[in-house]
Amino acid sequence: xxxxxxxxxxxxxxxxxHGAPVLLVHGLGSxxxxxxxxxxxxxxxxRVIAVDVRGHGRSEKPREPYSIKGFADDVAALIEHLQLxxxxxxxxxxxxMIGFQLGVDRPELLKSLCIVNSGPEVKAKSPRxxxxxxxxxxxSRLLSLDTIAKxxxxxxxxxxxxxxxxxxxxxxxxxxDKRAYLAxxxxxxxxxxxxxxxxxxxxxxxxxxxRDYTPVAQKQAYVDExxxxxxxxxxxxxxxxxxxxxxHFNSSLLAFxxxxxxxxxxxxxxxxxx
Length: 274
Fold this sequence. Notes:
This protein is of the alpha/beta class. It has a single domain, classed as Alpha/Beta hydrolase fold, catalytic domain (Rossmann fold), CATH 3.40.50.1820. It has helices at 39-42, 68-81, 94-105, 127-142, 145-156, 163-172, 178-188, 216-223, 241-244, 246-267; strands at 2-6, 9-16, 21-25, 47-51, 87-92, 110-116, 204-209, 229-234. An eight-stranded mixed beta sheet has the order 1-2-4-3-5-6-7-8, with helices on both faces. Helix 2 packs across helix 3 (94-105) and helix 5 packs antiparallel against helix 6. The chain is globular and about 50 Å long.
């Protein structure tokens, strides 16, 4: 268990394995624990660093407004603290947003980017969007974390055989700090870097579940705007793909990382960064 300080906040991270660095960034209300099916597989080939985002897990939870840019600055500070070469960053949901933010702000820190069930903006563009965002914002404040956990467990893992995964949500979600959780949700709403996607030139794999919150076509649209990206759809999956389809997810991610590593020496002898 390791910590470092950035901007007066103690941030928790974990390290496993050896090799090229792979940095895992979790989503809203999650922590390093939600990479439990990925870390052992990745650590057989890479140096894996999993971080608890500010306000989450074992990291401190300062009572102040949060922002996606601030989260990305924390990740950049961790990369610099560990004196890492350009990293393979894997981010799910809010973690994917952090990856996008880091990619447009500090492209030199990234060797590749894997975005999972996420997008480069959370902005209302229609009356329905405004209603959905307002609904989520309001319910998150009105409902207890226990109630949210029960609903989320059923939404993410509806199958009878997924009882163990539902139980993980029921156990872990209420452990969130409610104020920090809401501050993180506020950081997401209205955020966006879509107009700057051209800055992300490193190899990018966008993984989406076929039953994610947003449609596959929406991901394909922004993949088409990225200079060096491709889309992978994982079937029979919802928003928590690394948990509900770990074997397919792990094999796809490992294949992508191996491809980037093999191409790196010839692609650019001076720098492997974006």
